[in-house]
Write a structure and sequence with these properties.
The chain has helices at about 15-25, 35-45, 55-60, 90-100, 105-120, 130-135, 150-160, 170-185, 205-225, and strands at about 5-10, 30, 65-70, 75-80, 80-85, 125, 140-145, 195-200. The chain has two domains: about 1-30 and about 120-220, Rossmann fold (3-Layer(aba) Sandwich), CATH 3.40.50; about 35-120, 3-Layer(aba) Sandwich (Rossmann fold), CATH 3.40.50. The protein is globular, with a radius of gyration of 17 Å. Helix content is about 50%, strand content about 15%. It is built from nine helices and eight strands. The two termini are about 15 Å apart. The chain is α/β, with parallel strands linked by helices and about 230 residues long. A hairpin with a 2-residue loop joins strand 4 and strand 5 (about 80-85). Helix 1 (about 15-25) packs across helix 9, helix 2 (about 35-45) packs across helix 4 and helix 7 (about 150-160) packs across helix 8. Strands 2-6-1-7-8 form a five-stranded parallel beta sheet, with helices on both faces. A three-stranded antiparallel beta sheet has the order 3-4-5, with helices on one face.
């Protein structure tokens, strides 16, 4: 039986932060699938492709190699031999990743790579279709969400801390638009798996959320005969 943890949810719901904490504290391998899609988006942007150019994007997928490496204990995302981790959180990258991820060629390549990683290691993966498509038999599935207002505020504070000057209302509008696009795409839309725990983090601290997820994981492990 696998011990994978699948954490899904909309943009800026805190998936990556919680996945990293849980993976570290439970000795699992963290795989940031969103970062992998963003790396692919960087590839498209470098080629000058627009998000609505499905034919161009489908062809460009063939020349993209996205891998994950660990340097000094930190996950790095490598695109065609180049470490693109510093560019993953740019707004243009995020918007292209969300728009291009609707295409079958993009999702097929990413899903295959993610499943390969899970076949080799016990992982914590976060994304939008992990519990429904990538790891449908995951040991634990959690669907994290929060209000658009709270998620925009989190993103606003994150960008301010980096020295940027974001506009709150623009960020909020982009999050709402991304939610709609992710949940209405034809291929692997954002949705809660039937057997996933729903967790609204709007009024929860990071420690509270991480503790809740680890509690779910530990309880399942005990029930499976792995009592701690």
């Amino acid at each position: 039986m696998n011990r994978h943890i699948a954490i899904d949810g909309p943009a800026s719901s805190g998936k990556s932060t919680i996945a990293k904490i849980v993976a570290k504290r439970r000795g699992l391998i963290y795989v940031d699938t969103g970062a992998m899609y963003r790396a692919m988006a960087i590839h498209f942007l470098k080629l000058g492709l627009s998000a609505d150019d499905e034919a161009g994007i489908t062809e460009a997928v063939k020349t993209a190699d996205v891998t994950i490496d660990y340097i000094d204990g930190q996950q790095q995302v490598i695109l065609n031999g180049e470490n693109v981790t510093p560019y993953l959180r740019q707004e243009a990258t995020g918007n292209m990743a969300s728009a291009s991820s609707v295409y079958a060629a993009v999702r097929s390549k990413m899903t295959a790579l993610q499943q390969k990683l899970a076949a080799e290691k016990t992982v914590v993966m976060d994304g939008r279709d992990i519990g429904t498509v990538v790891l449908p038999d995951a040991f634990l599935k959690v669907f994290m969400t929060a209000s658009a207002e709270v998620r925009a505020e989190r993103r606003f504070n994150e960008l301010k801390a980096k020295g940027e000057d974001p506009d709150f209302e623009t960020l909020k509008a982009e999050i709402i638009e991304r939610d709609w696009r992710d949940s209405h795409r034809e291929i692997a839309p954002l949705k809660q798996a039937d057997d996933a725990f729903l967790l609204d983090t709007s009024d929860m601290s990071i420690d509270m959320v991480a503790g809740y997820v680890m509690g779910l994981y530990d309880e399942r492990a005990r029930r499976a005969g792995d009592g701690e």
